[in-house]
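Summary for the funding panel

The consortium committed to producing paired sequence-structure records for every protein in the target list. Below we show the first two records in order, beginning with the earlier of the two.
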Amino acid sequence: MNSPKRLGRALLGLRLSIFLVMLMWTLDKFIRPEHSAGVFSHFYAVTGLGQGAFFMIGAMELVLLLAFVAGLARRYSYGAVLLLHAVSTLSAWHQYAHPYEGTNLLFFAAWPMLAGYVALYLLRDADSMTIDGRRQVARGNPGHS
């Protein structure tokens, strides 16, 4: 297998695994809006949002994630997903300062995930196993997004 194919498959795997994690967090807004309210209150100091607000946030995230997993508008969809995870990772600063309290050690898994998001964003033009990438390759323009 040649190198571009391996890279394409690696980036697809990275994109699918990122999508899976983000999808679970998005579905949480629909399934357990009260949990999402607790997360927003604790980590982002945002209070007073009702169930409808979390449904709206979840719906917008879902649209973004579908564009992301399909590889559409890579600069924007990959960038927005990266930004969401970066804010989430940085907002947990207290957990990093106290790693051995409760389940705080699990928060450290966010850092290699963030590195994966950054890598996927930086390599977005090489991510050819996308709807967007396939169309551009067919036109003779390999993956500029």
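The next record, for a separate protein in the list, is shown here:
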Amino acid sequence: MADPIRVLIADDEALIRAGFRVLLEASPGLTVVGEAADGATAVRQTRALHPDVVLMDIRMPVMDGLEATRYVVDDARVLIVTTFGEDAHVFAALRAGASGFVLKDTPPEGLVAAIRVVAEGEALLTPRVTTRLVAEFVRRSASRPVTSAPAGLDELTEREREVLVQVAAGKSNAEIAEHFVVSLNTVKTHVSRLLFKLAARDRAQLVVLAYESGLVVPGS
């Protein structure tokens, strides 16, 4: 039997932490290893308790969730809890290394599924919604100069670039396989090569790189 997924809950509202704990502890294969009421505590708890996933609120005292994410992404995957009104915060969280996000009104089963997906190494649980948020933030920031292409972009094959565009569009591996009429394993290989060549932590970073480099243009 596989070890349970270890989750740390970081939120400044005690009622929300308690609700998350009850939900997650009742879900097979998940266990809550700790709680944090602010970002600084979340960083300390992550380093001490070694969770697999940190469920991170954005707005917290002492240290907010964005800064805390930058400190913990090398030790655990971060799933940001956010709302539609925080588009720019979502983009900043992805740049900080978060593996994805869930909305605060996500149904309980959606939250559990999100944690499982992130723990398994995937990212962007709701890719189309995430892509919309990223695109909107980039559109509002159109006056900024395009970031220089990341190292490794020139080394991509034509098919790898095509797959990267599909990833940035929020497509799942299965959808990409159907689009190119190839096997799922072939797509997984392409994505793995993209992660390696672009030195990206996960699919979330691939999306950010695709937008910031200008490879993908909002609305295209």
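Regarding this second record: The mean pLDDT is 83. The two ends are 45 Å apart (CA to CA).
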